[in-house]
Amino acid sequence: MNDLVAENLTVALGGQTVLAGVGARFRPGEVTAIVGPNGAGKSTLLACLAGLRRPDTGRVALGIEPILTLAHRERARRIGFLPQTPEVAWAVDVETLVGLGRTPHSGARGLSDADHAAVQAALVRTGMTGLAHRDVTTLSGGERARALLARVLAGEPSWLLADEPLAGLDPGHQLDTVDLMRAFAIEQGQGVVMTLHDLGVALRLADRVLVLKNGALIADAAPLQALTPAVLERAYGVKAVIVSGAWGPLIELIGRTTDG
Amino acid sequence: MTKRLPLLGGLCLIVLLLGGLSLMAGRVWAPWSAWTDQTDPRWAIIFELRLPRTVLAIAVGAALGLSGAVMQGYTRNPLADPGVMGVSSMAALGAVMTMYLSLSLATPWLLFVAAMIGACLGVAVMLVLASGTSGTITFILAGVILNTVASAGVALALSLAPSPWAAQEIINWLLGSLADRSADDVWRALPFILVGSGLMLMLGRSLNALTLGETGAKALGIDLNVTRVLLAVGVGLASGASVAVTGMIGFVGLIVPHLMRPLVGHQPGALLAPSALAGAVVVLAADILVRLTPSAAEVRLGVAMAAVGGPSFLAMLISMRRKLA
Fold this sequence. Notes:
The complex is a heterodimer.
Chain A lengths: L3 E10 L2 E11 L4 E5 L6 H8 L7 E6 L2 E2 L5 H7 E4 L11 H6 L13 H13 L15 H14 L4 E5 L7 H18 L2 E5 L3 H7 L2 E6 L2 E6 L1 H4 L2 H8 L1 E8 L2 E9 L4
Parallel strand pairs in A: 3-8, 3-9, 6-7, 7-8
Antiparallel strand pairs in A: 1-2, 1-4, 4-5, 9-10, 11-12
Helix pairs in contact in A: 4-5
Chain B lengths: L3 H21 L8 H4 L4 H35 L11 H14 L7 H22 L6 H24 L4 H11 L8 H19 L2 H6 L3 H7 L4 H23 L5 H9 L11 H21 L8 H24 L1
Helix pairs in contact in B: 1-3, 1-13, 3-8, 3-11, 3-12, 3-13, 4-5, 4-6, 4-7, 4-11, 5-6, 5-11, 8-11, 12-13
């Protein structure tokens, strides 16, 4: 499988620079977390990586194929994208929602046997089989997040790009979601890229961390090398130290620095 | 999928039964015996008066039901339809323009073309006004703007009408009716309704994917530009031609998809064909009832639909508010 490569991406919105020459290479089998303060350009970067936004300059490629030259359907088969706070407009049941993940594979005649098998596999993987016939609008936040994750997994993409997949979830469901994504990367060799707010999760569960600040990458390394006190101070304007807890490294926030 | 066939089959059967009834029922009852005997005066009533009317009721109902289902699917708003979104008003404005200029009598097809251009423009303006936002408020406001502009245009045409007859013609047409339509009207409207409906029926996959919002649909590989073009041309042709041949008939596109939705598991794509058939059922049934109503002059179909549709719309709003609360 090919690397997902971003080269010199710049995006400006209404005269405001959102991305300023971001370059990065993502490898299959790796979980990468993109962190940074609000408005740093995390979501924009992810949308560019998913081929959903055309950068002003630079390009994103799967291997050597520029992503924007791929047919829409082909791109959708390779890259699964989970938007931030995804909307579900109609009161469809969980199985139907997960079946939407097969859209890039299915024809006008609806889902094939292979499509149904993939839907069932995704339901099993996310532990949603028992809720398959529940109306999505009646699910709790955690169940809904799992159903939407199953929707992406059902498409059997090579890459899973998720925008704030943990937002609004309690700690238990956050761990469930991250575990599912890690398993996806480790067992099946797929690449996972997600934007995150929780630095603790990024530190513990990502293979690699990218730190964005004002649209520029200020760190791109393994978690402990990326989330150093100096980088955190520069990115967030906070004073923090990395301490070693009983179960691994922890980030301890001390306070705001003066220029934050 | 397994539940769809009985639903579609059942709706087809009802359309056929009502179609037969529509040929028989009216001021003059025409039983089976009159159908084969060409010398019977009722034969002419059946085949020259009631057949065009029946075909048009089915076609217009299907076009309006389908347009409503497509617009609700695209906007993800159960209150969208050609009437609410101003598409019908824009079609009416186009048609009224040709009447105002007295072009419609000499070249009747011009009225159709003008109505369809108006409807396509209406959909296009709606899409532009609401582009980039997926908020339902924006769509509703776009509809309010279009309706206001189009009504103002129609009012202007009425007040400046060159003769009382032109004004009378406009008013008569605006009220919406299927009475006294000829085979010529069928041949003018039907091709456009068929083409427009065909385009709309191609939107199932995109509308299903739009359940996940515009970003979600794009991520699933849907080319939304293609979707928008199909939607604008499909709704424009079908509802424009419908308005041109019957005048304004509201609420069909609003209520029919609402009734069908629970029967197809709320999937916007699976809603399309049933909405077309159920739209045909509703308009056909309404037209038969209008004919059988004992009154001096026939009650207008558009007026009757509004009388039934208004309260239904209100009931929908109230039940939706209860669900949200």
